[in-house]
Amino acid sequence: MRILHTSDWHIGRSFHGVDLLADQSCALEAIAELVAECRVDVVVVAGDVYDRAIPNADAIDVCNKGFEAIRAAGAVIVATSGNHDSPARLGAAATFAAAGGLHLITRIGSVDRPVVLSDEHGPVAIYGIPYLEPETSRVELGVPQARSHAHVLDAAMARIHADIAARGVPRSVVLAHAFVVGGTATGSERSISIGGVETVPLDAFAGIDYVALGHLHSPQTLAEGVRYSGSPLPYSFGERTHRKAVWLADLGPHGLVGVERRDLPVVRPLSRLTGTVDELLTDPTFDAARGHYVSAVLTDVVRPVDAMRRLQTRFPHAVHVEWQRLQSDSALPYRARVRGRADIDVARSFFTDVYAEPSAGEMTWLRRALAAAVDENRADPELPLEETA
Predict the structure, then answer these.
(1) Phi then psi dihedrals of residue 166, to 5 deg
(2) H or E element: which one contains 256?
(3) Which residue, of 14, 259, 273, 381, is most buried by count of CB atoms within 10 Å of its CB?
């Protein structure tokens, strides 16, 4: 049996305010093409199908079309809910959907009720563990004393192992949405730590042929049969050097026989560019980033006016701008930088930092404002005339 492992679709997510639905649709189409090309039997989605608990209509439409394309390509789908999903909403029509080959496992009480599929070697039991928040899952799992993610996951795995033994199935797959020790976050994941340790140990999954993990957004191998597929698209500029991928896991008659990485196409690259606005607009070095999502770090001496609009004339997909003024004393604490300087000099520097070099008229306004402040201090004996640094 061939299994394609994916996760963290986050359908409906935006990127610095930019709608990603078209990009996500392309990524799901690429996954469906892989299903057909590689003769995949089962696609597993290990949580965070949507980016929010109540997805909008357009996000639902993109997700449904993705499911339909994968199913039409020949694969059964097994998906669980992640910490971004609403289990009740994602699994609302689970029984009906299962008849069409889409199995949605979103209930904690269903962790030991697998989807059982068969190939020429016999049955394979595929178990889904939805995201387990300790406070809301410990009672349902029968461990009211549990307070950590590790404790509730152990309880879920105990139920799964008991069911495997009772069924006598020789091959098993588990989907889990969790932060496993040894994994590395990318920065675009939402923390799942609420008053406790969010990680769970790798050995919690001992005895399972293949564990399809979700939550972390880059492809990672924790053990031969325990892996993160990561998200199909980058969701932060920290992921700009990552190549997104899925795993193809093959099960033979006695368990896992091999895992192959298949890279996904880059829908739109990400670039982080540094320079003055004029350099970014004219330097041919930056030509390759014209069609990328761009984050620009501006090094102009004076904060540029209308920088985003200007940059988008060359980089139409620029989505983020920050100003990083280069100055020799920038590492000094603010108090040390202003010590011994006249009030008007401090005010002038502040005006320059947040807007531009003040004109003669603006300097006159600043002097009048400072003089009025001094007069007010002298008129009110409760206010100090000056403060020492």
Answers:
(1) -70, -35
(2) strand 255-263
(3) 273
Q: Give every CB contact of residue 48 below 8 A, 6+ residues apart in sequence.
A: 7, 8, 9, 10, 82, 83, 84, 85, 177, 214, 215
Q: Read off the pLDDT of residues 70-118 as tens digits, 9 standing for 90 and up.
A: 999 999 999 999 999 999 999 998 999 999 999 999 999 999 999 999 9
pLDDT value for 366 = 85
> What CA–CA distance (Å, rounded) separates 65 from 138?
35
Query: What does pTM read for this prediction?
Result: 0.81
| Measured distance CA(344)–CA(294) in Å, rounded | 38
Mutual angle of helices 343-354 and 360-379, in 10-degree steps: 130
How many other β-carbons are positioned within 10 Å of the β-carbon of residue 34? 20
Residue 276 burial (CB count, 10 A): 16
- Cα–Cα distance, 263 to 133 (Å, whole number): 32
Q: From CA 376, how far away is CA 88, in angstroms rounded?
A: 62
What is the rounded CA–CA span in Å between residue 13 and residue 34? 23
E-strand ranges in 318-376 read 318-323
pLDDT classification of 336: cutoffs 50, 70, 90: low
